[in-house]
Amino acid sequence: MNSSAAAEEVEQPELKEDEIEDRPADLTEHLEELRTRIVRSLTAIFIGWVVGYILFPAVYHLISLPLEEPLRRVAGRTVFLHFADPFFLRLKLSFVVGLIFAAPYVTYQIWAFVAPGLTRSERRVVRMFIPFSGLLFVMGVVLGYFFLPAAIRWFLSYLADYGNATLLQNPLSYVLLAVKILLAFGLSFQLPIVLIILAKLGLVTSKRLLTYWRHAIVIIFTVAAIVTPTNDPLSLMVMALPMVFLYFLTIGIVKRMESNSAKQKASG
Q1: What are phi and psi of 212, to 5 degrees?
Q2: Is the predicted pLDDT of residue 152 greater than 50, yes or no?
Q3: Distance between CA atoms of residues 228 and 217, nearest Å
Q4: What single-letter DSSP state applies at residue 79?
Q5: 217, pLDDT greater than 90
Q6: Which one of 21, 147, 148, 254 is CB 3.0 to 4.6 Å from 66, fit for a cystine?
């Protein structure tokens, strides 16, 4: 009896730091950590929302620039259709700005939560490509922004079919449409990241990507048609053609990665 009690009182050896990190957590710990990271992310989004509300005049001016010149050509003007629209426009655009400001911090919170469940090689792959993902997203948004005036002019070209009709553009509907277009372009530029991660995980090869390039082009145009808010041919082509270019560029990158990996195995 005394021996068993003494055995219970024997202190357990302390775990090293790396052993603590690798030790599986129970469901309660996971839920507590998830709650903490969600609260932190929501707090960051709210702070970004406040900052976006303060910066609204400058942001609205920037996003409305693509509309000004085409609207001037057809002697149109912006008109609010409801007394609450100016407030809701500021509220919604500020929220989008807040999401943008908080995105890096929210991404870190997501990464910190899921990283312990990944293998070391999977963590290395994700850490390698997160910065490139952000860069490609910005490139897509910039392309979409410079495309907006051409798209607006294309749509306004049909106004002449209606005689002396003029355009009274609701700023709220324009801003929401512009944000959707920019978001669609930014997300479409994530294609190389997705393919390279799949290649790193051994799920695709450069040979397979090249073999099924026709299928890939059909899928790219289909996805572009779905995610393009306006569903017009011009937007479809402007979004799909860069994605096709990025697809073939990714094949070359994956092939280079495979070659380097083969050399390392041969030398090792």
Answers
A1: -105, 35
A2: yes
A3: 16
A4: -
A5: yes
A6: 148
